[in-house]
Amino acid sequence: MSSTVTATKRNYPEEFIKFLNSSPTPFHAVYNIKKKLEAKGYKELSERETWNGSVKKSGKYYVTRNNSSIIAFQIGENWIPGNPIAITGAHTDSPVLKIKPISKRKSEGYLQVGVECYGGGIWHSWFDSDLSIAGRVMCKEQDGVTVSKLIDLKRPLLKIPTLAIHLDRTVNTKFEFNKETKLLPIIGLENEEEKSSADSSNNNGCCNSDTKLESSQFSSLQNIIERHHKGLLDLLVQELQLPNVDSIEDFELILYDHKPSCLGGINNEFVFSARLDNLTSCFTSLCALLEASDVDIENESGIRLMACFDHEEIGSSSAQGADSNFLPNILERLTLLKCDDTDVTCPLNRSLILESSAKSFFLSSDVSHGVHPNYSSNYESKHKPALGGGPVIKINANQRYMTNSPGLALVKKLADDVEVPLQLFVVANDSPCGSTIGPILASKTGIRTLDLGNPILSMHSIRETGCAYDLEYQVKLFKSFFEKYSTLENKIIV
């Protein structure tokens, strides 16, 4: 069966811009990925239910955790447990400012919002940017059920102003600030209603004596109206069309750069945006999986799988991070199923996950450092990845990245077949080295792994820079991986 979509007929940069602008949080990113999958015929599975009888050969499925991590896969017609699985991995989160559980702040007539730093952001880049709010809100329904609702206010609401140079002459030579007291956004001016309202906020989350509820109204936590500015809550009620503020149980909201993602440069060769780290790899792996869907699936003996995890920026140790049991559990479920109407009864079936793991391969994809023209001395002299030069294979002798020579041989073969240029990156010996989900999942599963990613500038800034040309390169490479891995895996002997 031949593919009905070819990479050259698609405008990946424009599609990517739309994806970025509609995905201000991991929750939105997973929602948008789900919609793309469902449009291609993928069906949702639940970890709460058995998959016996539900998962079929040639079938296309996805499963989510926390609505911020997602795994999608298609099963080959010739799949049997113990066969190889071709896996791509990415992460949905980025360094951001998150609204604190008690966020109400006031100072000098300004309304301010308490925020917490998430991940290793370049926080000075957040000053003087127009910031909006997005996330999810837990809402009480009339039947007593609490449901999660996505929200994106899509308007400039907050600002973290810098101090004028007249009041700080060192600002251009030494810009230092306290993240607790100076990285505090303003959201409005204190009006008469705010002035007359009793600010019951305190740091331990208990109610003040003058706001104590009757025993029949006992609440284990401060009322949400006491913890957050009424104006902010009113915006949530209006956007979600809720009956009143009492419908809001709680929320997880982040601040994001309101300025839309866009193409830039003389020839529109750049992508200027927040969250390139790492919605880039989420987008390219999704495109590749969808384009590979149904391609020669009748001869496929393996499984084609993409995984996008939350919480990479803070170490991946969560129920939905790469250091959780999410991917191992999915692999175990798949290797315990015959993918037909009968249950697996062989007493040795649990060893099949070990066989599949030994035959499988994981392309751990996170963005890479592109060479900075103004700081070229900060890079290893022979390893300076160029924007537009194709995916970067990341190597580290201390195993901060998982790339080794057999993995290089495999990826080179895939890239040669589809004419995708590759680059190599090694950090200089006198520089620190980041890491990825690659080492985490390699050690957890024993699956052979290689780390790679598209090069960008200003990594972890509120506004990063990537190259539009690299998107198609990575999609083509991942598509080749999904379609060809099961026939290549036994031809590279270690």
TrEMBL record:
Its EC number is 3.4.11.21. This is aspartyl aminopeptidase. The keyword Protease applies. One of its GO terms (molecular function) is metalloaminopeptidase activity. Belongs to the peptidase M18 family. It catalyses: Release of an N-terminal aspartate or glutamate from a peptide, with a preference for aspartate. InterPro entries: Peptidase_M18, Peptidase_M18_dom2. Keywords: Aminopeptidase, Hydrolase, Metal-binding, Metalloprotease, Protease, Zinc. It is an enzyme of class 3 (hydrolase). SUPFAM superfamilies: Aminopeptidase/glucanase lid domain, Zn-dependent exopeptidases. Transmembrane segments: none annotated. Gene3D superfamilies: Aminopeptidase i, Domain 2, Zn peptidases. It comes from the Eukaryota. One of its GO terms (cellular component) is fungal-type vacuole. GO terms for biological process: proteolysis. Its cofactor is Zn(2+). The keyword Signal does not apply. Pfam families: Peptidase_M18.
